[in-house]
Design goal:
mainly alpha, Multidrug-efflux Transporter Regulator, Chain: A, Domain 2, 2 domains, 12 helices, 0% strand
C-alpha cells in the first residue's frame, strides 16, 4: 500500500526530480514508476517515496542504462542492484576516459593542426615557403602528413624522411616545385608531359624499380592520399595518370 502524508502534484514532482511531466508519464507507461491514484479532484498525488524512486530512475537513465534494464533493476535484489550499479559505474569511467582523450585531441586541433605532428615534420613544413612552395602546397602537405602519420604510424617517418632527403637534392626539389606550379596549367600543356617523364626517370633512378615509396601495401590509404592531392587540379590528375602509365611500361 502506498504511504500517504505529504503529497505533491506531478508538476512539483517533475521540478524536484529535474525531469519533465512528459518523462514521468513515459515512466508510468513503461512500468518504471507506479501511477498513483487520483484524488477527488481527479489529480495524481505523489509522495516523497515517489520522488526518491524517480530520482533513482533518472540517475540510471542519465548514465545510459536502457529503460527495460532499469525496470528489471527495480525488481532486483539489493545484491544484484549493487552489482549492476558497479558495472554501470565502470562503463562510465571508461567512457569518461575516452571523452577526455577526445577532448585533448580536439584542443590540439583548435590550437593548430601542426601540433598533431612531430616537431621535425613541423620544421619541414615551416621551411617550405622559403624554398618557394605555395601556401596551397604547404596546406596540402600538412593535411597529408597528418593522414599518413595517423594511418601508417610504422612507416610514416620513413616516408617523411625520404621526402625531406629529396628536397635536399636541387634537381628533385625543382621537380616538386614544378609539380606545385603545374596545379594551374592546362592538363594538356606540354610541360605536364615533360614533368611526368622527369618524375618517372627520377623515381627509377632513386628507387631502382617501378614502385614509388609507400605503394607496396594492401592499404587503400595511398590511393586515398593521391586522390586528395589530385582532386583540386585537372593538370595534377593527368600528371598522375601519365606517371602511373609510364611506370608500368
Amino acid at each position: 500500500m502506498r504511504q500517504h502524508g505529504l503529497v505533491i502534484t506531478i508538476g512539483q514532482l517533475a521540478r524536484y526530480a529535474g525531469v519533465s511531466t512528459k518523462t514521468i508519464r513515459v515512466y508510468h507507461d513503461k512500468g518504471l514508476l507506479p501511477e498513483p491514484d487520483r484524488d477527488s479532484s481527479g489529480y495524481r498525488r505523489y509522495t516523497a517515496q515517489d520522488a526518491i524512486d524517480l530520482i533513482k530512475i533518472r540517475t540510471l537513465a542519465g548514465a545510459g542504462v536502457p529503460l527495460a534494464r532499469i525496470r528489471e533493476l527495480r525488481a532486483a535484489s539489493d545484491e544484484d542492484f549493487q552489482e549492476a550499479i558497479h558495472q554501470v559505474d565502470a562503463g562510465l569511467t571508461a567512457r569518461i576516459q575516452e571523452l577526455r582523450e577526445t577532448q585533448k585531441r580536439l584542443r590540439r586541433l583548435a590550437a593548430g593542426r601542426l601540433q598533431m605532428l612531430l616537431p621535425e615534420v613541423n620544421s619541414h613544413l615551416d621551411r617550405l615557403p622559403a624554398l618557394g612552395f605555395s601556401p596551397r602546397w604547404v596546406a596540402l602537405e600538412t593535411d597529408l602528413w597528418i593522414l599518413v602519420f595517423a594511418t601508417h604510424p610504422d612507416t610514416a617517418l620513413e616516408l617523411f624522411r625520404d621526402q625531406t632527403e629529396a628536397l635536399d637534392d636541387p634537381t628533385l626539389r625543382q621537380m616538386y616545385l614544378d609539380y606545385d606550379e603545374a596545379h594551374d596549367l592546362d592538363p594538356y600543356d606540354p610541360r605536364i608531359d615533360d614533368l611526368a617523364r622527369r618524375i618517372v626517370q627520377a623515381s627509377r633512378e632513386r628507387y631502382g624499380s617501378n614502385d614509388l615509396p609507400g605503394q607496396d601495401t594492401d592499404s587503400e590509404i595511398p590511393a586515398l592520399i593521391q586522390g586528395a592531392v589530385t582532386a583540386s587540379s585537372p593538370a595534377w590528375q593527368r600528371l598522375d595518370a601519365l606517371i602511373r602509365e609510364r611506370l608500368l611500361r
